[in-house]
Request: fold
Amino acid sequence: MNIKNDLFLRAFTDAKLPRPPIWLMRQAGRYLPEYKATRAKAGSFLELCRSPSFCAEVLLQPLERYDLDAAILFSDILTVPDAMGLGLTFGVGEGPRFSKPLREESDVHALAVPDMAKLQYVFDAVAECKRALTQDGEQRVPLIGFSGSPFTLACYMIEGAGSADAFPLTRRMMLQRPELFQKVLDVNVGAVTAYLSEQIRAGADALMLFDTWGGVLAPRLYREFSLAPMQRIVAALRAEFPSVPVMIFSRGAAHSVGAIAAGGAQGIGVDWQSDLADVRAAAGPHVTLQGNFDPLLLTTDEDTIRREIAKSLAGFDPHHRYIANLGHGITPDADPALVGTFVDTLRST
Amino acid sequence: MNIKNDLFLRAFTDAKLPRPPIWLMRQAGRYLPEYKATRAKAGSFLELCRSPSFCAEVLLQPLERYDLDAAILFSDILTVPDAMGLGLTFGVGEGPRFSKPLREESDVHALAVPDMAKLQYVFDAVAECKRALTQDGEQRVPLIGFSGSPFTLACYMIEGAGSADAFPLTRRMMLQRPELFQKVLDVNVGAVTAYLSEQIRAGADALMLFDTWGGVLAPRLYREFSLAPMQRIVAALRAEFPSVPVMIFSRGAAHSVGAIAAGGAQGIGVDWQSDLADVRAAAGPHVTLQGNFDPLLLTTDEDTIRREIAKSLAGFDPHHRYIANLGHGITPDADPALVGTFVDTLRST
Reply:
């Protein structure tokens, strides 16, 4: 498939680009009234994720409003443990919850890579999104697929829900029973590798590993229990699909940027609690950085947005191996007009 | 006053020590049944803080159980904004709340360094703690005084409460109205300097600045809005009280350890999401590091505690400018027996 605007993919080469490509984490989200309308039609967040046609509908919404250089599959990172039989639900106004978390040793021994047929709805969504992006035989922008990282999935699988306290049940298993915890990670490595491979076969042009919680660990533990499993996935994908770039986004892991870059990922997501110039110095020149604006900016004003963009990019080359993005998901209180200011300012960088 | 066990204070010199001194953040806390009994007698957490005799009672409790090398004033960081008239309360089972947070520009212009007489109960508690530590004309261990940092206090003063979302109202003022935010910080610098000076006059032998929230900022913003105000306080205290060591504990600010060390603080608190050997490399050899064990360890088992202590201290000299401690406050579910294992293991290091 020919891609009309391939600026995003060219950011994974050493080419000097005329401007940075830009997209936004959770660009199809609750800050957009049209997204809320589709979600209401779908009935719930999970039903939206399970409907390829609704997924394609919300995928296009931000592209209609803003001049963006990539689209991302609409889905959730917890589809994979749900397919493992852990029973995912989202209560009203609550985060995710698993009805059958991993609490006993026997739960871990019963865990296995799920049959990918159970995730066919995700691959159907990828294909439907790909079709929706295609106009006159050309794909408008690249389509990004994604998965949660093995460690981040393990956090939810063991805890059974989100945590205000850095997942104590999960970290206790990691510290007290490292071999048992490694078994969970091993299953997750197999599942995520299969899951992302199928997303590529269904049409994903690039991939992102969301490691939302790896950064709660000290560096030595992050590298052992979060980065190492991601690197096994990256290595497997690069061997089979060498032309599809893979990005790792470990929130709060600026300490290990050098190790992430050395481990084979083509891109590194940078959170808003980092300075881009520091991350570039640690990562070296041959890896692509993505990020890292504070989503809070989209709740301020035009002058603040322009001033903070200039400050964030000081001492950093945004035309070389750089993808402009937020440093965390957009928040529901983002002002859609300010999102326009943000995108336009970065496009003229 | 002669101090019988001054190992803690000697850790602020370049002397090689026979073992690391040890104390625990929140060592007088809810994991101890005797603390809960005193708190019940006092009626509430705030009433406990406001009673010098109850403060002295809970100060001694962990020293009776464990072989610790320092005691810390029992108090709360929010006493200072409370004295500014912001109206501190603690709801049952809730965190702190201010009835009159800083929301309007006029609120900020009305803010002033409080009369230290309003905080006399804290200085009385310092003096009472000092008396309680004294036996046969000798002080058992050094007494640490403390305050919240200007930025951390501003977080609560503007938000009016804790935040699950990195204090959006506070950070919005910082980004949109930096000069107004600086006015809050300036008042806080004056207040904290006066507050800590009075704690020294009342008997504190060392001081700690708890900067719980500075690490939510990107490094460039941390250095401008959190570290710089702390350095003004450190400079003022060092000029007037050169023999009293001051420690800065900025949770999540491992990125700026070099800047903290260069800025004059004699000690740096290290959170559990850092590796001690990395922090030592960034800080250089002439600043004292304190930390950084994961409080979760105190909910595991003896073998895990011993193994993780050994791993955490690998490649690090615990006998030189090092104070063993947790990397965050102890949690209510800590097992008092495991706290003993933890302390004893570190004492034989």
The CA atoms of residues 277 and 316 of chain B lie 5 Å apart. The first helix of chain B runs from residue 7 to 10. The first strand of chain B starts at residue 2 and ends at 3.
